[in-house]
Each structure stands twice: as structure tokens, then as C-alpha cells.
Amino acid sequence: MIMMDRSEFFSPQAGRNVEAPRHSTARFAIGQVVRHRLFDFRGVVFDIDPVYANSEEWYESIPADVRPRRDQPFYHLLAENEDSSYVAYVSQQNLLTDEDGGPVDHPGVPQLFDDFRKGRYRLRRSLTH
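Above: the chain's sequence. Below: its structure in C-alpha cell form.
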């Protein structure tokens, strides 16, 4: 029997510890602007979970035919669409690099990020220490 090396972290959204593989590969980075593959919104990544780490109720509320796998990175986004700004939690399989490359107009951006250069935001220095 082969034992996989695993890691565990506490998820406030799920209200429990979540087990995750130690080596998970995130395709996107904090500060990167992304677009949803199916729905018309975009956002800036401000946190990454190595695997699904939200509540069971939230996961079950996603229609089964579009429900993402749990064993992939999930991204917390300061998101926007034409009507509003909000926080989104999106699976890696449903995100694409935002080719427009423009800034995100979300009121939370100045709290987390300093400036926007070359299609990316830089995390505030006070948050990196």
C-alpha cells in the first residue's frame, strides 16, 4: 500500500479542516486578472485554496451538470460583471486568463492591492509580511 503525503488546513467557509494534497498546482496567481469560462464575469485573485474548501451546502447548490471537481485549486476573486461587484469562489477548471488585461473595478481592490501593472495587481506590502 502506498501512502500519499497529505496536508490539512482550516477553512473558515467550510467551518472544518480540509485535507489536501501537499503538491497542488495552481494555474493562476494572487493579483492575476481572470475571467469565468461559462459566466460573464471577471475578477482579480486574492486567495487560493489547493482543493475545494467551502461548505457542503454551497457545493450542493451548484447544478450537478456543471458542478466542478473538488480535487483542484479554487480561487477567491474580487469579481465584477456589468451590474455589480462581489466576491466569487471559482474552480480552476472554470477560469481563463483575462485577455483584455484591464483593471478590475471592485471596491475591495485598494484594500488588498497597490498598483496595477502589465495586467496584474501587486499585493500591498503591509499584507506580505
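Strands lie at 6-11, 16-21, 33-36, 42-49, 74-80, 85-91, 95-97, 113-117, 120-123.
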